[in-house]
Specification:
alpha+beta, two-stranded antiparallel sheet
Length: 92
């Protein structure tokens, strides 16, 4: 993140949350996340590459962060093999 003079004057509006671009997604991951969203009874919006920088109203960011935590808990419990969960596999 690079802060510019404009940043000090910017105020998000209409509960908008600005995020950085992560470039983490692949076709495999996108398909897998679609399946996982279905299993979690979540709507899949096909929004990818959301970065770790979030800027917006705290209540909006906190609500989305709570969804992120719920997703991470689901992933850790359901999307990794027992060996991966127990860290018995080597790092690639």
């Amino acid at each position: 993140v690079f802060l510019t003079p404009y940043f000090g004057h910017f105020i998000p509006y209409n509960d908008i949350l600005l995020v950085g671009r992560g470039s983490y997604s692949t076709a495999f991951n996108t398909g897998r996340l679609r399946r996982i969203a279905h299993h979690m009874n979540w709507l899949y919006a096909n929004i990818t590459n959301i970065g770790s920088t979030w800027y917006g109203p705290p209540r909006v960011a906190q609500r989305i962060a709570n969804f992120s935590l719920e997703a991470m808990l689901y992933l850790s419990m359901n999307e990794f093999t027992r060996a991966e969960q127990q860290r018995k596999l080597g790092v690639l």
